[in-house]
Amino acid sequence: MGHMLEVQGLKVSTNGRLILRGVSVAFENGKKYAIMGPNGSGKTTLAYSIMGHPDYKVIEGRILLDGEDITLLPPHERARRGIFLGFQTPVEIQGLPVMSMLKTAYSAVKGQSVTTYVFNKILRSKLDEIGFGQELLSRNVNEGLSGGERKKLEVIQMYVLEPKYVILDEIDSGLDVDSLEGVSRAVERYQRAHGATLIMITHYAMILRYISPDYVLILSGGEIAASGGPELAERVDREGYGWLQNEGSKGGS
Questions:
Q1: CATH for 4-247?
Q2: What are the residue boundaries of the structural domains of the chain, listed by start?
Q3: In 18-56, which positions are buried (b, 16+ CB within 10 angstroms) versus exposed (e)?
């Protein structure tokens, strides 16, 4: 059995409300997954639970990374083991230069500190690889950045940290078509070059026109309501989520 990230019978609550009601899924190494579903279905909860966000309490079930139980590990330990989560609305941090943030994250995840000079060289080579310009690097973290710039910053972070498991939460929200295309191309290039597992959480199928998933999972009411190939995303694109009610519990978990 290859490397994988596995969620077993996960029940998760936040603010005292049960959101995930027993989700089981194995994300195989090097595959691309789309997790879709109507608003409030538990998609973001699943992402944050895998990352270990303290507001999301695992009531039952386990999260395994390459066979190791990481259910109780803090987020920075999960990051060290190669999990990355890009946030739906990246936070603004007043006065924190982008360069400092990236360098700090790099040192924490890689477990080694580097000089600013060395880090600059690493960063510039990454930017060349992605095909992004240098202009973001002189800014403060997400301060006054457009939606597209924030998402680009997430992509830069991903390239710098070199995770094995990339979770992108609504990376397509608030992007115009050009930005979406640029970000998608960079994500796909990373996934291929690193053989990473890509988990895209999305409400719309927009991003899936640029990055074709191997598997599509649809969450509804905190459970997996349907699973299949890319054709499932096309159905959502055409019909929305209304048909889920009629399917009942078909489609397995």
A1: 3.40.50.300
A2: 4-247
A3: bbbbbbebebeebbbbbbbbbeebbbbbbbbbbbbbeeb
Query: In angstroms, rounded to a whole number, what is the distance separating the alpha carbons of residues 30 and 120?
Result: 29
For the chain, first and last CA: distance in Å?
20
What percent of the chain is predicted at pLDDT more than 70? Answer: 92
Residue 123 class from Cβ within 10 Å (0-12 exposed, 13-18 middle, 19+ buried)?
A: buried
**Residue in the block written with tokens 């830069």:** 156
Maximum separation of any 2 CA atoms in the chain, in Å: 59
C-alpha distance from residue 202 to each of 44, 87, 140, 234 (Å): 9, 12, 27, 13
pLDDT (tens digit, 9 = 90+) per residue, 104-125? 889 989 998 899 999 999 999 9
Per DSSP, the three-state class of 4 is strand
On whether the pTM is more than 0.70, the answer is: yes
The pair of three-digit structure tokens given for residue 79, joined into one six-digit string: 């990051």
pLDDT digits (tens, 9 = 90+) for 123-149: 999 998 888 888 888 877 766 777 788
Token digits of residue 103:
């360098």
